[in-house]
């Protein structure tokens, strides 16, 4: 009966491994390197990623870019505006070498400069809000998923409450109610902080649910038991064993959450509760352009296009990232 | 139980001394239903196990899927807390120790896991996986963790150069070796091996089994081996406990169990092992057990095997047979044990 197991003595010392020894030093290819190799093949996602990178650089170097082009975001050019019609003089909303995207009606501010500075606000708010909701969502999700029981029930119901919250109404009410100075912040800084707080604090349940689900399946894996049998404490299991396995969904979800937040910020600015004029913001520009689209349609195109392309680029990049990190295609 | 337990009793590996004793071990998993999570029943995974493990031996737990082998393993390593009963390891009752009190003892009791694909964290390098025991237990190594890990890798037949690689770059057998290296890191005294080879190819199984045997000799290890493959069990065990629906039905040394099985269930199990010798094939008739294993939620009363046993009588349905020693070192829980020279086949 035991015959199939009889192996001549000595052969237990691993013959297959001997072959591997001959190969010599092989650098371990981490899953990140493999994912990056796959991402490199996805040209559409790369284009999206490149545009996102470009946009971030534009946001960071907005003053430099404006100086190079020779435009400023807040200076009036009323000499270029038709005094009776209040619209920019010249074709296509006053497009010229001096003002590549034209100028605004009425006061004649440069649209290109305002788009560039608007990228700053949009991305800043979108990134910070995403960061906040990802941090809250991951911690809540991982805790709910790992501990289960009443902790899970409590956190899951909390998520339901947050998701049922009328966010836009709350934002309108809150921004209208707060004073000009709070927590040592004022002006735009206070507004930005407030919007980041509103978006981040109310959109964590989306990622929280995803992380909770993933954690539920991960905690049944044997490597968690292995860590426990070695005497690992809970923080170690949550953040050293489980978290690295959650990085892929977190990253993908965050990349797809950013464009949503760009849109949300634009929406709030459009409704007049974003950053306050004269600070440039894409949503605020769209809001202004809405009054002029019949006589000066060109005013609407740059901010509209900026939002559209930004959201598209993030989404394409996020989708590509998901494909590259997807364990099923591994 | 105080913190001084961190330094366990000086290791005097006296062969024959009891290292682990289990008395009346019970694990019931409650089934809860409804809004108030009322308990409506329990899965009686392990229901009253009593056995001892002697230092240096290999005790195998065998049985069908769902008979409670794995649960027993997890109870012994205290990944689960027993519902009742006692687990005494080196004279200390560990059955209800808190997580913190259990932590220092985990150096001495380690576990090898079944699934070599699930038991290694796919995001950690081999170095991090095998080095984790040192970090988690705050054990200082003489020449640093890296050196210690590389020595362990060599010990289990891997190359030290595998240190920086990830589990997905290895085959099943190699992964199991990585798992074994991690288990050995803290030089445990008792290793609970939960089906250490059943996920591997037959050719690799032999290598890993032989590795486990070599390591046992080198480090005076005691194994509690959980398995369902009777050929593997015969190869590695000193003693074998046969489990059926959460109970031990037969416990004997290997030779006695394989040569003279007493419990009808053991007889049936052994008759199902394929015989490679074609000449001997016709002589042994296979006993086919009728029906499925009953549900552990509502196990049959008295002798749990009576629903499928061909020798069952009235008494089997009313009185539970105790686990008694019918021959030296051979315990059986049956009213009508087979005790003949050769397993007779009165099947069907």
Structural class call of chain A reads: mainly alpha
Fraction of residues in H or I helices of chain B: 25-40%
Largest interface between protein chains, with number of residues from each side: A-B, 40 and 63 residues
* Order of H and E elements of chain B: EEEHEEHEHHHEHEHEEHHHHEE
CATH class of the domain at 114-329 in chain A: Mainly Alpha
CATH topology of the domain at 114-329 in chain A: MetI-like fold
State the helical fraction of chain A. 55-70%
From the spread of the alpha carbons, the general shape of chain A counts as elongated
* Main sheet specs of chain B: 8 strands, mixed
Structure write-up:
The complex is a heterodimer of chains A (330) and B (348). Chain A has 330 residues and is mainly α. In chain A, strand 1 (181-182) and strand 2 (185-186) form a beta hairpin. A two-stranded antiparallel ribbon of chain A has the order 1-2. Chain A has a domain at 114-329: MetI-like (MetI-like fold, Orthogonal Bundle), CATH 1.10.3720. Chain A is elongated. Chain A contains 12 helices and 2 strands. Chain A starts with 14 loop residues before the first helix and ends in a 5-residue tail after the last helix. The longest helix of chain A has 37 residues, at 111-147. In chain A, helix 3 (43-60) packs across helix 12. Chain B is globular. The relative contact order of chain B is 0.13. The termini of chain B are far apart. Chain B has 11 helices and 12 strands. Chain B has 348 residues and is of the alpha/beta class. Chain B folds into 2 domains: 14-118 and 188-332, 3-Layer(aba) Sandwich (Rossmann fold); 119-187, no CATH class. Chain B has helices at residues 69-76, 99-102, 126-137, 144-155, 172-184, 202-219, 230-236, 254-259, 264-271, 278-281, 314-318, and strands at residues 18-33, 38-54, 58-62, 84-89, 92-93, 109-112, 190-194, 222-227, 239-244, 247-253, 324-327, 330-332. Classes of the chains: A mainly alpha (330), B alpha/beta (348).
């Amino acid at each position: 009966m035991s015959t199939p197991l009889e192996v001549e003595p000595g052969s237990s010392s691993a013959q297959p491994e001997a072959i591997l020894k001959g190969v010599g030093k092989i650098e371990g290819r981490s899953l990140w390197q493999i994912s990056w190799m796959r991402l490199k093949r996805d040209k559409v996602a790369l284009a999206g990623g490149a545009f996102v990178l470009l946009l971030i650089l534009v946001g960071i170097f907005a003053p430099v870019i404006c100086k190079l082009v020779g435009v400023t975001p807040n200076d009036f050019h009323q000499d270029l505006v038709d005094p009776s019609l209040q619209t920019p003089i010249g074709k296509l909303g006053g497009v010229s070498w001096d003002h590549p995207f034209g100028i605004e009606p009425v006061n004649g501010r440069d649209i290109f400069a305002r788009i560039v500075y608007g990228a700053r606000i949009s991305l800043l708010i979108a990134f910070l809000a995403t960061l906040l909701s990802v941090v809250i969502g991951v911690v809540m999700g991982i805790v709910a998923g790992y501990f289960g029981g009443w902790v899970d029930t409590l956190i899951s119901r909390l998520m339901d409450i947050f998701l049922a919250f009328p966010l836009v109404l709350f934002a309108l009410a809150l921004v209208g109610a707060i004073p000009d100075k709070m927590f040592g912040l004022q002006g735009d800084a206070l507004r930005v902080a407030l919007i980041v707080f509103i978006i981040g604090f109310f959109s964590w349940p989306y990622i929280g649910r995803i992380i909770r689900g993933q954690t539920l399946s991960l905690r049944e894996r044997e490597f968690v038991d292995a860590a426990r049998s070695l005497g690992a404490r809970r923080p170690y299991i949550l953040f050293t064993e489980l978290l690295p396995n959650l990085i892929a969904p977190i990253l993908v979800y965050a990349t797809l959450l950013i464009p949503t937040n760009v849109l949300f910020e634009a929406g709030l600015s459009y409704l007049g509760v974003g950053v306050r004029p004269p600070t440039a913001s894409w949503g605020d520009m769209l809001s202004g352009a809405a009054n002029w689209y019949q006589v000066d349609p060109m005013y609407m195109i740059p901010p509209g296009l900026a939002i559209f392309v930004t959201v598209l680029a993030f989404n394409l990049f996020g989708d590509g990232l998901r494909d590259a990190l997807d364990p099923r295609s591994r | 139980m105080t913190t001084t337990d961190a330094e366990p009793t000086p290791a005097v590996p006296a062969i024959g001394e009891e290292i682990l004793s289990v008395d009346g071990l019970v694990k019931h998993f409650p089934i809860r239903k409804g809004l108030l999570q009322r308990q409506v029943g329990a899965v009686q995974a392990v229901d009253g196990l009593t056995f001892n493990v002697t230092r240096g031996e290999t005790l195998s737990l065998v049985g069908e899927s769902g008979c409670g082998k794995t649960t027993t393993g997890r109870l012994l390593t205290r990944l689960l807390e027993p519902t009742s009963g006692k687990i005494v390891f080196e004279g200390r009752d560990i059955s209800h120790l808190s997580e913190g009190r259990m932590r220092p003892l985990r150096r001495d009791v380690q576990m090898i896991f079944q699934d070599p694909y699930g038991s290694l964290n796919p995001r950690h390098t081999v170095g991090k996986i095998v080095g984790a025991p040192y970090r988690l237990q705050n054990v200082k190594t003489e020449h640093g963790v890296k050196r210690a890990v590389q020595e362990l890798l060599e010990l289990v037949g891997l190359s030290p150069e595998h240190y920086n690689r990830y589990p997905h770059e290895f085959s099943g057998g190699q992964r199991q070796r990585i798992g074994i290296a991690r288990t050995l890191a803290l030089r445990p005294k008792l290793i609970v091996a939960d089906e250490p080879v059943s996920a591997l190819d037959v050719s690799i199984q032999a290598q890993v089994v032989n590795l486990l045997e070599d390591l046992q000799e080198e480090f005076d290890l005691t194994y509690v081996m959980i398995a369902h493959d009777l050929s593997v069990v015969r190869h590695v065990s000193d003693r074998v406990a046969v489990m059926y629906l959460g109970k031990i039905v037969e416990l004997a040394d290997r030779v006695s169990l394989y040569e003279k099985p007493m419990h009808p269930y053991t007889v049936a199990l052994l008759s199902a092992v394929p015989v490679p010798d074609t000449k001997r094939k016709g002589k042994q008739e296979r006993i086919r057990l009728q029906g499925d294993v009953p549900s552990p939620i509502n196990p049959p009363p008295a002798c749990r095997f009576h629903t499928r046993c061909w020798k069952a009588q009235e008494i089997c349905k009313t009185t539970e047979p105790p686990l008694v020693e019918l021959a030296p070192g051979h315990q059986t829980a049956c009213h009508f044990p087979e005790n003949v020279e050769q397993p007779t086949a009165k099947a069907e």
